[in-house]
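User: quick one, sequence for these tokens?
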């Protein structure tokens, strides 16, 4: 089991927390009741680049009632090449959201590797097994 690591840098706003872990993974946590639209995506992009200046694997978590608009879903494909993400873990809290995410990504394949899981530690392990991490010294 991979233990939680020290947070080297943290940036937050009213809807999001972005944390750079000592092992080089970026943890993005979306706060409850967030409806992600294009404006939110642009703010997220700025926060990602403030957290890191190189591409790193990201793990996304979220609280209750997080959703995304149709326009933002379409825009996500365009934004993928503009963010410092080398691969993604999407941690879902329940089976229903995992099934929806798996189905969505089956037909809307991202440019970079993605792993959807209900187990946070399994997601971190997937990152460690699939990416050459650049730890923060």
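Assistant:
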């Amino acid at each position: 089991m991979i233990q939680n690591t020290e947070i080297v840098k943290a940036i937050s706003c009213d809807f999001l927390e972005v944390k750079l872990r000592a092992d080089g993974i970026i943890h993005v946590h979306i706060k409850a009741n967030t409806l992600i639209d294009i404006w939110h995506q642009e703010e997220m992009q700025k926060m990602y680049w403030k957290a890191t200046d190189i591409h790193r694997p990201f793990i996304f978590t979220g609280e209750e009632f997080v959703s995304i608009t149709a326009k933002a879903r379409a825009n996500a494909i365009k934004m993928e090449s503009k963010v410092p993400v080398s691969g993604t873990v999407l941690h879902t809290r329940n089976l229903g959201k995992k099934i929806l995410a798996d189905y969505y990504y089956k037909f809307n394949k991202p440019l970079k590797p993605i792993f959807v899981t209900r187990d946070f530690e399994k997601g971190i392990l997937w990152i460690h097994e699939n990416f050459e991490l650049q730890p923060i010294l």
